[in-house]
Please model this.
Amino acid sequence: MAVVTGWPVLAAAVVMMVACAQKLTQLRRDPDSPALRGVCVVLACLGAATVLGWEPAYALPTRITGIPHLARLLQHALALLAAAALQSVFLFLADPQTAGRRMLRRWLALLAALTVVTGGFAASGFSTASPAGDRVTPASVASVCAVLGYLTFAAIDVVGSATGYSRLVPSSPLRHGLRLLTTGILAGVAYGIHKGLSLVLAVIGYRWPEAAISQALAVAAMTLVAAGLALPSVGPYLSDAVRWPARYGLYRDLAPLWRAVYRINQDAILSPPPRRPSIRSMSSELHRRIVEIRFGLRTLDRFVDPAVGGDAARAASSLGVPADTARAIAQAASIADAIHRKTTTPPTDPGSPPEGDIDDVALVAVDGGPRSLVRVSRAYHGHLRLRRTGAVAPDRESGTPGRSYPRLDLPRPHELETAMPRHDMTLAGELYLMCHGDRSGRPRLHQRAIEIGLAAALLAELLYLNRLHIDGERVAPIDGAPPPDPLARRVWDDLRKETHPAKKWIAYLAETAVEDVIGRLHMQGIIAPSVIRRGLRSRQVTVWQPTDPVIAAGSWARLSVLLRQHARLMPFDAALTGLLHAVELDDALLDGDRPALEHARFIVTHLWPPLADLLTETRSLLDSEILAHRM
Model:
C-alpha cells in the first residue's frame, strides 16, 4: 500500500464510504442477511484502508501510539479482512446453510496470515526504508508473501463464484456489478504480481520505482470492487432517475382518463395517488395507474354503443388524422358516451346495450399499453374541453363549467356478493390468500416472491384451461374459446400478441400480478381494503384483509392436512403445492414436518411436465431476484 498526497485517493475513499452507508441502510431493513453484513464489512475495510493511504491520515496512528508506520500494518490487516469478508459474501449467496462451516477454514487462514504479517512488522521493529516501500529483510519478505498469498487465494475463490453468477443472471445492474467486481479483483491480482516482482528485484539488489504503479493498481482495485458491490442496489435507482421524466410525462398524461374512472368507480382505486411520485415509486405508481384505468373501464363494457366509436373514427379519418390518433379519438368518444350512459341509467335498468355486445374500441382502450392509453387519455381530455366550450353537448360526467358533481356512491362488490364457492377459487386467488395472513392480510413472504408466484399462477390457470402449452422455456398459446375469467382472458390475449420465453412472461406479468389478483378477489367479495396507521408519523397504509377469515384460512388448512396425511392430491392442489414450493412457502405450511415435506417434494417432482417447466422457470427467476436482493 502506497502513501499519496493527492486527492484522487481521498475521493475514492469517500465513494467507498458512501456506498457503505447505502448498504447499511439496506442492512437496517434486512438485519438477518449475512451477505449484506459481509458487503458492509468489505466496503468499510476498503474505505478505511484507502483513507490510511492518504498522507495526513497515514501519520495519525503513529502520533497516537508512537509506533512508526503503524498505518502500514493496519492497511494490510484491513485488506486481508476485506478479502475474507468478500469470500463469506459469496459463500452465503451460494448456500447459507453450509457457508458457516466452509468459512471456518478461511477464517483460520486469515488468522495465520495476520499472525505472520504482525510478526514480520514486529521483527523489523516497524521500520521501513520509506513510507512508500518495505525494507528488504527476511521478516518483511515473509510479511509481504503472507499478504499476497492470502489475497491470491481469496481472488481465486471469489472470481470463480462471481463469474459463474454473472452468467446466470440476465443483463442488469447485478450482472454489471459482478463484472466490475471481477475486474477489480483482477486489478488486485495485478497489484500483487507487481509487488511480488518488485520484491524479487529488491532481493537481488535492483531497486524498481514501483510506488506510483502500486498506488494506481491498489486504488483501481479497491474502487472497482466497491463499485461492483454498490451497483446492484444503486444501479436501479440511477436507472429510475434517468427514466423518471419520461415516466412522469406518461403518468401526468393519463390523469384525465384516471379521473374519469375515479368518478364512476372508486373501487378501482386502491388508495389516493401522490401528486408527483418519487423516483423510487414512479414505476409502481405508473403501473398502478394503468391497472386502475383498465380495471375501472371494464365496468363500462355493457354500456358501450358501437355506433359512437364508429362515427368518431370516420369523422377523424375524414379530417386526415393519422390512424392511431383516429383510433384513440374513437375510443375516447366511446368511453365518454359509456360514462354518460352508466351515470344516467337507473340501477334497476340493465342498460340499453345488450350484454356481451362489446366493441373492439373499448377493449383496446382497456388492454392497450401505456402509449395507447396515453393517446386515448389525451383524446378524452380534448373531448372534455370541446364540451366545456359548447362544441359538444355537456353530459353528467363532465357537467357544465363551474358546476361540480358529488362522488357517486356505487355499491361495492363485497356488499352485493358473498364469497365465491370453494370449487370456483382460482390458483392465483388461493396462492394470494396463502401468502397473506388469514386475519391481518399481511404478507408472509417478500413482496417480490409474491409477485413472481402470482404471475406463475396466472400462467398455470391457462395451462389447466388448455389455453396454453409450455415446453421448457417456450410458451405457446392455444387457440379456442376465450377463457371465461376476464383476467385470464387478458393474460391469454397478451400471450397471443407476442412471443417471449417463459421467464420473460413471468417477469412481465409480475409487474401487475398482485394488483390484478387483488382486483379479482375484491370483485368476488373475498378481500376488502382496510386503512391502518403505521409508523411514528401515522402514515396511512391500505391493507387488503379477508372478509371471512374461515375462507381465507381454508386453503392453508386443507392443503396442510392433505400433505400431512400423504393423500393423493387432485391436479388443482398438486399445482398449488408446486407453486408453494417455488416461492419457498411449503416449509412454513407444514411447520417443518419432515415426512410431509418429503411427500410434498415427491409431488413436485412428479408434476405434469408443462407445469413442471413453468415452475422451473419461476424458481430460476426467483433465485436471480433473491441474489440481486442479497447483493
User: Anything to note?
Assistant: Residues 254-399 form one domain.
